[in-house]
Structures are given as structure tokens and as C-alpha cells.
């Protein structure tokens, strides 16, 4: 009887174990398909490369005097009307949601706009055509450019909440440009950027002590600067204020937290 009882007991235990094994397997499969999955990633320190932040610069003087004079000549705007119309367009080009009240309003402005047949939906096109895209300026001294030593970093003119600005070191596509947003056309080929080695953005490793780039070539006496992620457009809350001089920004990456002298202690 003892032998029979042992065989029966082992049979029950085997049956119960198979049953719960199946339950556990089905539960794991269900959890795999329906529940959140945590994935851990171990990174080699040689590939800890991080894209440097983007920099958007907005000049405070937008319109070009020569282009404006030619526009006025073609549309018959003369004398005091030129100064009135200039004041209107310059304030309009610098307008955003916090200073719309600064745009001058008068019967003279309304009459000028009516005489030349300028519609509100064409305001941005006129401002674009009267603003020089300084990334295409032949003179390198006056050209807006983004450089790292002998390497050019792609810089483009973009349309933002603060009007026409310049963006450097970005990983966004070419659709984010003033020409595409206004006319639906991609920016023209910039031969001056290709005079030297050209990259779209600059990456830096945790172990590189000096990774930097310079965005230069602005003739406006006042500039408004924004620093943001290379994967994002300019944001209002990343404004660093107005400046009339050269400025150096020293961003600190919080992506990697490590002990001091890590780069000299690791194997």
C-alpha cells in the first residue's frame, strides 16, 4: 500500500507542477503582449556623444535700406510716406504676441497700404523680400555663419514667433526654414557653406574638454538669443535676452552623472 500511495503522490505532484508550469508560461506570454516592458541599455563610454544645443539669433534690425528704397520706387512711395511706411514695416517685422500694440496705426499708413494694394496675407512675403538673408552674403566677414575651426556648421534663416531669425547647429529638416514656411520651397543651395567641410550639427563626448562652435556675422546692433535642443524649434522660455556685444554660453549636460576624474580612472 505504501508503494501505491507514493506513486499516487508523485503523480499528483507531477500533475500539479505541470499545471502551474503552464499557468506561469501563459501568464508570462500575456504579460509580454499586454504589460509594459522595461528595457535596459548599457552604453559604451566611447559612444557617449551628445549633440550640442542649437542657437537661434534674432536681429532687431530687419529691413534692408537698399531693398526698401527700391520697393518704394517701384510702388511710387515718396517723401514723408517712406518714413511712415518704414516705421510700419519695421515694427511689423519685430512684432510678436507681447508687442502688437507697438505697430503704428494711422490714416496715412492705411492709405499707403491701400494705394499699393498690399493685403495682410502678403505682409510676411514683403518683409521677407525686404530682408537680406545674410547666410548668402558673398563677403565672409559680413556673412552669417556657424563655424568650428575650419568646419562650417549649417545655419539657416527661419521664421519664428519673433520674425526672421537665424538657426545654427540643428538636427531639424530643411522644411523648418523661412523660405519653405512662406513660399513652400526649400532653401537655395548655399555655395559659401560648402567652401570648407560642412556638417549639419556638432557632437561632443563627455571626455572632450573643448567642444564649441561660433555663430557670427550679424550687422544689427542688437541681438536676441535663444538656446534650445537641436531636436526642437526655438522656445520663448529659452530666451537669454538682448545683447549688443559678443556673448559666450557654457551649457552643462546633465545626461551623464559621474565622479570627478572619471575619464582618467576608467579602464
TrEMBL record:
What GO molecular function annotations does the UniProt record carry, in alphabetical order? sodium channel activity
Q: Where is the protein localized?
A: Membrane
One annotated Gene Ontology cellular component of this protein: membrane
Task: Name the major location.
Answer: membrane
Segments passing through the bilayer = 7-29
Question: Which is one Pfam family of this protein?
Answer: ASC
Keyword terms, alphabetized: Ion channel, Ion transport, Membrane, Sodium, Sodium channel, Sodium transport, Transmembrane, Transmembrane helix, Transport
Family per similarity comment? Belongs to the amiloride-sensitive sodium channel (TC 1.A.6) family.
Report the protein name in the record: Uncharacterized protein
Q: What is the lineage of its organism?
A: Eukaryota, Metazoa, Ecdysozoa, Arthropoda, Hexapoda
Amino acid at each position: 500500500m505504501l508503494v501505491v500511495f507514493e506513486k499516487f503522490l508523485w503523480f499528483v505532484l507531477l500533475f500539479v507542477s505541470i499545471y502551474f508550469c503552464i499557468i506561469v508560461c501563459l501568464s508570462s506570454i500575456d504579460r509580454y503582449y499586454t504589460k509594459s516592458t522595461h528595457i535596459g541599455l548599457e552604453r559604451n563610454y566611447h559612444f557617449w556623444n551628445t549633440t550640442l544645443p542649437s542657437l537661434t539669433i534674432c536681429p532687431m534690425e530687419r529691413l534692408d535700406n537698399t531693398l526698401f528704397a527700391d520697393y518704394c520706387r517701384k510702388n511710387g512711395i515718396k517723401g514723408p510716406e517712406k518714413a511712415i511706411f518704414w516705421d510700419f514695416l519695421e515694427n511689423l517685422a519685430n512684432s510678436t504676441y507681447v508687442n502688437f500694440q507697438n505697430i503704428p496705426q494711422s490714416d496715412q499708413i492705411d492709405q499707403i497700404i491701400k494705394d499699393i494694394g498690399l493685403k495682410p496675407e502678403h505682409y510676411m512675403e514683403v518683409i521677407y523680400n525686404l530682408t537680406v538673408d545674410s547666410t548668402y552674403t558673398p563677403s565672409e566677414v559680413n556673412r552669417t555663419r556657424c563655424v568650428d575651426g575650419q568646419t562650417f556648421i549649417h545655419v539657416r534663416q527661419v521664421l519664428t514667433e519673433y520674425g526672421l531669425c537665424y538657426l545654427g547647429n540643428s538636427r531639424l529638416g530643411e522644411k523648418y526654414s523661412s523660405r519653405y514656411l512662406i513660399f513652400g520651397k526649400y532653401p537655395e543651395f548655399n555655395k559659401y557653406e560648402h567652401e570648407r567641410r560642412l556638417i549639419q550639427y556638432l557632437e561632443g563626448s563627455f571626455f572632450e574638454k573643448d567642444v564649441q562652435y561660433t555663430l557670427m556675422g550679424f550687422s544689427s546692433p542688437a541681438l536676441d538669443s535663444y538656446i534650445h535642443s537641436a531636436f526642437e524649434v526655438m522656445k520663448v522660455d529659452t530666451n537669454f535676452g538682448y545683447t549688443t556685444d559678443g556673448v559666450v554660453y557654457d551649457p552643462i549636460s546633465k545626461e551623464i552623472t559621474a565622479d570627478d576624474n572619471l575619464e582618467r580612472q576608467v579602464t
